[in-house]
Amino acid sequence: MSVMIKVGMADLNVCAAPEALTTLGLGSCVGIVLYDSSTKTAGMVHVMLPDSTKIKNNENVAKFADTGIDALIGKLISIGANRNRLIAKIAGGAQMFAFNSNNDMLRIGERNTEASKLKLQSLGIRILAEDTGLDYGRTIEFYPETGQLYIKSVGKPLKIL
Amino acid sequence: MQFDVLKEIGNIGAGNATTALSTMINGKVDMCVPKVALLEFKELPDMVGGAENIVVGILITLEGEVNGMMMFMMEQKSAYHLVNLLMGNSVTNENFTEMELSALKEIGNIIAGAYLSSLSTLINIRIDASVPYMSIDMAGAILSVPAIEFGKVGDKALIIETQFSKDDSDVNGYFILIPTRESYDVILTSLGL
């Protein structure tokens, strides 16, 4: 059994194979996995909000898509990952409640996903796979050994990206 | 200081919700003194049995002078119990029928509404609530919605746990009230803080 490292809400961590990373019960938050297949190192960040510049209280970098991805890259490089080889897989950004209003407060999942994609794009990191949106929670596990992202949801079959 | 005030609001709100529940099922319902905790986001799901524990979340959005959201959450087991009390039958299967789902939504709406009306009376400000929205899923996923709102103001969330009991069976419910930044100030100001 490989060691499974937990990433909490507004949290990030890195690992190298055979270790693996997981974040439990992603809802409107987005889980972003960055992976370097040559060194079999990976990082995961569980972001809650799209943009750190819009919020006064922004010391916790892992809370935001923009600063969270930057911090994750820094940490990955420090354990020997190659910046130019990084690819991404993302999941989450669900709309947990079926609102029929355009209230921004309620579209947060979608906005988190958009912001994560834009940030990755601006850094030239390719998104290899994504499972975002819809209306249910996801637990994700990433195995650097194989590069596979497991997605588990209530009452749904296991998805492997 | 602000924590104590919010705790007191929680206390009063939960008491009111218990009365509403008692009226609804036409029987005596006891309530424990609520546990109030200010938790880091990382710890939040542990309070309700872990991020993957399946819970029922009922969410109401607030408008008017106070904006934000209010959530009432309970474990699936408690939800079955409440529905049984209300409908006088015994749901034991894993899935609720449409009828039971709508009863559950109404229970959440009444409990959350009672909580809100006591808050509204206390601060003497009108709060308009939306229709209730319900989701049954992993606790982490459901909690992400209020946690994100808290995330805009800080790194911790206030959660109030209340235990209702009737005839030796307990129903654990959790209230989460999330005013927006501006509304938070409105509440504190109207309380003279």
UniProtKB/TrEMBL annotation, chain A:
It catalyses: L-glutaminyl-[protein] + H2O = L-glutamyl-[protein] + NH4(+). The keyword Glycosyltransferase does not apply. It is an enzyme of class 3 (hydrolase). Its EC number is 3.5.1.44. CDD domains: CheD. Keywords: Chemotaxis, Hydrolase. Pfam families: CheD. GO terms for biological process: chemotaxis. GO terms for molecular function: protein-glutamine glutaminase activity. Probably deamidates glutamine residues to glutamate on methyl-accepting chemotaxis receptors (MCPs), playing an important role in chemotaxis. HAMAP family: CheD. Belongs to the CheD family. This is Probable chemoreceptor glutamine deamidase CheD. It comes from Anaerocolumna sedimenticola.
TrEMBL record, chain B:
GO terms for molecular function: hydrolase activity. The keyword Hydrolase applies. It comes from Anaerocolumna sedimenticola. It comes from the Bacteria. The lineage of its organism: Bacteria, Bacillati, Bacillota, Clostridia, Lachnospirales. The keyword Hydrolase applies. InterPro entries: CheC (IPR007597), CheC-like_sf (IPR028976), CheZ_family_phosphatases (IPR050992). This is CheY-P-specific phosphatase CheC. GO terms for biological process: chemotaxis. Residues 1-36, 99-132 form the CheC-like protein domain. Keywords: Chemotaxis, Hydrolase.
